[in-house]
Structure formats: structure tokens, C-alpha cells
Amino acid sequence: MPSRRTIETAVALACRAPSLYNSQPWRWVLGSQDLSLFSDPDRILPATDAFGRQMVLSCGAALNHLRYAFASLRWTSVIDRLPHSQGRQCLATIGLAPAQDVSDTDDRMATAITRRRTERLPMDPPGRWDQTFAQVTELAAQSGTHLEDIGEHGRPALEAMSRRLSGLRRADPVYQAELRWWAGHSLYPEGIPAEALPAARHRTVAVEREFPPGNVTSDTGNEDDRAAILLLSTPSDSRLDWVRCGEALSAVLLACTDRGLATCTVTHLTESGAVRTALRELSDGDGLPQVLVRVGRSTRPAPTTAVSRRPLSEILFRE
Ligand SMILES: Cc1cc2nc3c(=O)[nH]c(=O)nc-3n(C[C@H](O)[C@H](O)[C@H](O)COP(=O)(O)O)c2cc1C
User: Fold this and answer.
1) Mean pLDDT (the chain, rounded)
2) Which of 107, 127, 186, 243 would be a feasible disulfide site paired with 60, CB 3.0-4.6 Å?
């Protein structure tokens, strides 16, 4: 096994992964032979994610971040997903072996982990998109996930669905209470601080979730979102699909970051059964829609500070 310090470094990098409302619903347990990843059901968001689908997706993203982090530290991860012996909350055990050789890509992806931020302002279109799209489609496929670009033909329908759903949710006090508990302030190293949310004077991007107003502004005055809109879908809706889709999400976000692009994960549209069905009809595949990702060029300088994460003492334990 790697030294304690190496493990702590890799787990800290893995926890830079995105998660629903920055809830960080994961726990890592270090054994003598391997490291295990558990979902933390105390961090489920009942009004937004009643079945824990996005909790598991978030953990899947952390799992792929961990693999890149260990690779950059010269360790190869051998991942066993949903091992039967460890109970329902155990999503993976990770065995580790010294790496024979390390690719330049692993190093670049680990660097992208520290640079990636969720960008919620409108974006300009991504440059050299064909190359990037081919790369991220291949990365998603490696995790058994279908990826497609639905921005061009689907944007008007997506915007209409999003407006309708946002209207319904404005009138849902339970959803609003949960959202406001997690977003718009920074009392704890979790949730989404005002520094990561668009200021009130910006119109919410039409396909984006409506958050309480924050402090983020852009001087360009550009309110038209021209980002590509990607949809990640899975063959079925099993826990394994969710873990693997989370891994695909991590790979897609980091590859785009590595290419200098801004990204935003968007999931409110897949939280409503009816909207999810409509999304499925918009899609060219027959998979189950899980996550949308906006990808484009940011219209402001990259934020220097990252959104906080919980300390290792709260998420990494010895067996
Ligand atoms: C499963 C999942 C769902 C998410 N849904 C949304 C969303 O609907 N809208 C949004 O702006 N961000 C969404 N995010 C991004 C998180 O809010 C973000 O990762 C978290 O606040 C941490 O910030 P960071 O990504 O800048 O590190 C989602 C992330 C995940 C993994």
C-alpha cells in the first residue's frame, strides 16, 4: 500500500470532485489491503434526490478523480465496483499497485482537478469543438455511458422544460428550504457559497437550475448562453450505472478543463420523472438521461479560489 501521506494526498484531490450542492456524500475507509469508497446516506438530499441517485453519481465522480490522483502519484488503481461483501453503501474497493509507467494524460488530468470550477454564468461557444467532443464521447463510452451534444437542436425545448420546472419549484416550499439550506452562504466547508453563484443582475442561464442570487458577475454583459449542452445517459438506472456515469462525468469535466474550457453540471431536469421522459425523447439514443453538462468558453477570468471541501478528518477513516 502507498504511504499514509500519499493516500491522504490522493483522497484530498479526489474530494475536489463535483457533488450535488457540494454535499460531498462520501466516506473513505482505509484497510490494510485496499481503500473503500462508501456513500454517506446522512448526506442525501430528500427533496432534490429522494432515491440517492445523484449521491451515488457524485461518489462515482470522486472515484474517477481518485484514479487520476493516484496515477499522477505513480500508483495504479484496481477498482472493484459494488463489492458484495461490504454492504449496500460500499460503492467500490480500490486496490493499489506501483505504476509501471505514468502517462502525460494522467498528470494533466490531476492538474485539471485543481483547476476545475463549476461555471454558472452564460458561456461563449467552445472552440475546436469537434476534437473535444470526439475525445469526451470516447471517455464516456469507456465508462459504459452514452454522451451526445443536444445543444444545437434541443436548446429551445430544453429551455422551455427548464422554465416550466423552475416555475413549479418556486412554489415548492420543501425543495426551496433544502436549496436555501445548501446554497447562497458559506457557514460550513460544504454547500455552494454566494461567491460561486451568479449575482441577481444576471439572468439565470435558461437551462440551468435556479439558485439564490450570489456575487459572481461578468463585465462582458453577455447574457446569451452559447455553451454546448451535453447529455450523459446510461443503459439502465441501476446503482452500477450511476457509479459509472459519475466516473464518466468526472472524465468529461476534467478533459474539458484540460482544454481550457469552462463546464457546468446541470441536473434539475433529470430530477423530474416527466421531464426526464421528455429529455429521453429529445435524445438520439434510448438510454436513461442522467446528467447535462454545459461546456463553453468562460466570459470572465477563472476564479482563483475554489469552493471549500470538508476536512479529511471527517471523510477518511481507518478500518
Ligand atoms: C450529481 C451532480 C449534480 C449537480 N447539479 C448541479 C446543478 O443542477 N446545477 C449546478 O449549477 N451545479 C450542479 N452541480 C455542481 C455542484 O454544485 C458543484 O460541483 C459543487 O457546488 C462544488 O463546486 P465546484 O464544482 O466548483 O468544485 C452538480 C454536481 C453533481 C456531481
Assistant:
1) 95
2) 243
